[in-house]
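Dear colleagues,

As part of the handover before I leave the project, I'm documenting each prediction I ran so the next person doesn't have to rerun anything. This entry is a single chain, and its sequence is reproduced below.
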Amino acid sequence: MLGNSRETRGVRSLALWQNIETRLDSSLKDWRSRIDGFDQIAAVEARTAGRVWTDDETFKGLLMAVLSNNTDWSKIERIQADLAELFSGFDLTWYAELPECEIGNRLLPWFLDRKAGSVTLRRDLVRLIDTARLLTEHTRLHGTAESYFTSLVQQFDGDPKQAAVCLGSRSEYKLPAFGVALAAEALKNLGFDVAKPDRHVARAVASFGLVPFRTWPDRSGRTAPSLSSRDSYLAIMDAVQEIATSAGKPVVMVDSAIRLLCAKSGLYMTNPELAELARESESSKRRADAVAALIRSWADMHDRGEQRETVECLVEGMDAERSSVRKLFPEEFKGRSW
């Protein structure tokens, strides 16, 4: 029974992902290239292939996570090419030795002049100095800053979700300037395949009905449920991972796609609109189940050669009528969802 339950959840998650793709295909044509531009899918692929990060690359990953806090990411995208010069080539040691007064005298005004600041940027950049000092000392003792993260993930049997919670909450590994969501974002930048449990993804998975939240006073607009516990962060990350696993996609891709549904720089969908998207996927699943059952019944008839040709013709015709680039019956999901 448990296996059947997991299979059912997997099919529902796949149907939901297909609806997410369809909505983005129809309303945000460049969404795939935008996600590629985040470089997180490439980072995951590189880490899977055995690539290691230098100390400066590690600091860059942390900095980009900090800059994403409480701001529209499109503002950071506009200035991204100039950040290397501003931050001395992302030199970890340079930033660790940076006088705190430089944040207010030089760095913060630079961001404000380009309308890329946030209400927490000064505080976050100051705390990032402490993080840089911590990692510089770690490098002195253990050889690389990256090992601070790889060793922690290894302690949790390769699970970056647990590492994100550890890095962002009270523990011996807590990093200044990083809560759980920003810690997950930093891990994504460093090539770990994990979702960022921020307000966007939280309200999406809650609206989808994937994670229940007791404290969620306003479900009508774009308000996120309250995140107050380790379990709530893990539940959000687990939900995104389940969708990714069902769809055969990287978690970072699904995570970014969900964020594009919710953020101002994307579709900025309301909670009811997100809930409707999940209901549409349930309806799509029921239709797909009915078609799949019909196809199987035809395939089980005596003249298998003729029925196979009929099935293939039907599938090809239904896919050809789709307005979305995503096929209703993708070959990679044959035998799974149809």
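The chain has a mean pLDDT of 88. Residues 2-38+195-272 form one domain.

All the best with the project,
I.
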